[in-house]
Structure formats: C-alpha cells, structure tokens
TrEMBL record:
Its EC number is 2.7.1.4. InterPro entries: ATPase_NBD, Carb_Metab_Reg_Kinase/Isom, ROK, ROK_cs. This is Fructokinase. It is an enzyme of class 2 (transferase). It comes from Vagococcus zengguangii.
Amino acid sequence: MLGAIEAGGTKFVCAVSDDQLNIVERISIPTETPTETLAQVFAFFDRYPIKSMGVGSFGPIDINEASATYGYITSTPKIKWQDVDLLGQLKARYDVPMAWTTDVNAAAYGELILGAANGKSSCLYLTIGTGVGGGAIVNGEILHGFGHPEMGHIKVKRMESDEFEGICPFHGDCVEGLVAGPALEARVGMKGQQVPENHYVWRTQAYYIAQALMNYSLVLSPEVIVLGGGVMHQQQLFPLIRKELKRLMADYVALPEMEAFVVPTMLGNNSGIIGCLALAKEKNNK
Ligand code: ADP
Ligand code: ZN
C-alpha cells in the first residue's frame, strides 16, 4: 500500500492507495498540536502495511537533504508547528522510503500525473486561498533549489487607483498580501463567497494575478498553469485573468492558446493528496 499525508494548516488529509493510486481509505484530521494530530495520523496508518509514503506539507519547510533540519516545518506563523520535525517523527514510526515536499508542489505533481496537466512534462500550480502558494514541475520533476519556491510573495506593480495596503505580515503588498482570500475580504468587507460576480474587485484580483502568471511564465515557461484554492471557485476570474495576461504579454512570447493555458484544477481538493500518493509510488520504484 502507498501512504500519503497532505499536511495543511487547518487539516491533515491522510490516505492509502494501491499501486494504481486508487484510494482505499482517506481521512481528514483537524490540525491541533503536533502531538495530538500525529497521534491520529499514526492511528490511521498503523492499520495498513505501508511500503512508502509521500508527504506534502504547509510551510515553509526544510527540503534540503544536507541540512540538519531537513524534514522540519520551519518559520510557519502557526506557533505550535514552528521548528517541528514532522518528517523525522513519521520516519521514526514508519521505516519506509518517504517523499517530502510542500503541499503545493504535491498538488502540482498530482495535476501533472492525473489532472489538468496530464501528458505534459511541465506545469505550474497556484493556489489562491488562505494564502497564495505555487509549485512548478519542470522536465517531469518538482522544482527545488536552495529551498522551495515561495511564489505567492513576489512583487507586482500596483494598480494606480488601488490604495489597499496589503496584508502580508512580511511584505505588505506582495501577491499574497493583495489577492489571497483574507486580503480580498479585507478589501471589500465581506466574505469571499458573498462577493457578487460583477463586483469591481474581480478585475483588481485579475490585474494582480495576471502579472504574477506573466512572471512565472517568462521565467519557467510552463506548458499549463493550473489555478486552485477557494478564491478560484469564482469562475468569472478565469476569462478576466486570461485577457489581462494576454494584454500584458503584448504578443512578445507566443503563449499556448489561453483557454488551455490557464485552467482550473481538475482534481479539485484532491490534487495534493493524489500528488503525495504519486510521489510515494515513485519512492517505491527508486
Ligand atoms: P486553504 O487555502 O486554507 O487550503 P481554501 O483554498 O479553501 O483553503 O481558501 C480559503 C479562502 O478562500 C478563504 O480565505 C476565503 O476567503 C476564500 N474563499 C473560499 N471560497 C470562496 C469563494 N467561493 N469565493 C471567494 N473566495 C472564497
Ligand atoms: Zn509576502
């Protein structure tokens, strides 16, 4: 059996599957203290003969294998999870090969293997939810460097009439500070779900999201960009973002056809957990 954990700031999703990634059982556990949450994680996986595991975690996390804190969740704003050796605690319980990456990298991989980027060798996955986070697949592999990408925190040019200061505790008006769900809600003073389809704010969102996508496209040249997260449930954003991205590119780079280039997630809330299972499968083959 393959094991997978999508470790999120509000919930941990755990799943086991067969070698074809058919999910046998899946549970969702609220993210409490590490001790409480891991006790439930162990209770779940103890019941299965797991031969490898894929873990996609909220971050920032340490993915540098040469580092003394490899496998740790590092400077998260969730105090109880700061400097927690998540991978180490899992390895101490289960002596099997384990893949370790961010939740968004896992989601990008899931979309590549079974979702909207199936058949491609590159893609970018961006979630716009409680935060903004992105993962990239290049030549079939997750892009890692000195650490993992933090695509939500790039700078964008401000809209002239926009006086919203942004809510990122580190950078103020980075992309996350401008367009994540809580920023959108602070901007308009209502829940994201309640904002009408024709509200001006969707143009503002699209203006900034398109700039971010332009930057990612120029640097990484992904074959497809998959957009997920709660805010992207607002389907009217897609045409607005595509139009703005096309305008910004000004025909300099021949992008793939827009409708096929900027697409919604195909796996929905499952891209992360499926990506983790696929990574577990790979570990097993190595
Ligand atoms: P998370 O990022 O924590 O995994 P979500 O992707 O569901 O979770 O993102 C939650 C955020 O998305 C909330 O801040 C909320 O403002 C926003 N959100 C959720 N649903 C919608 C919606 N239908 N329209 C606009 N915003 C939404
Ligand atoms: Zn930031």
